[in-house]
Amino acid sequence: MEKTDLHLKTAGNSKRTEVHSIPCKIEHDGEASVDAYFRNTIEKNDGHSNEEFSAIFRGRPLKGKILEVPAGFEGIVWKEGDKPVTEEDDSQWHEKGRFENISYWNLQNPPTVDDSFIKATYWSKMAEQIHAPVDEKKMKSED
Q1: pLDDT at residue number 126
Q2: Exposed e or buried b for every residue in 24-42, given b needs 16+ CB within 10 A?
Q3: What confidence tier does 36 reach under pLDDT thresholds 50, 70, 90?
């Protein structure tokens, strides 16, 4: 079984970063000129109370929404360091930045609560309820 060693920086040393979830596969894993090729196409859709946005990526129209990281959690972007030379060597992961929200994008249609990605963000709330102590008096009074 592979062992992974994570190198964490303190929160004070980490830069805030933007995270976008775009419905495509890009054969690149690293820094990108997001300002030049994507961010400058983002427009806020007026009249929408839930902060919907439109953008264009590689000629495709996108509809997006900003999703907050659930309360009590913080998003962290990790980058894998040098690959282990042997199976006995540890994998090295380094923190690249932290985020408080994610710009979630769909092709053509605005994100909805029925999207799998958005449903996954509700898990922390569900897990909190599932693992909360049970008040037996309250349970008996509901019978």
Answers
A1: 85
A2: eeeeeeeeeeeeeebeeeb
A3: confident
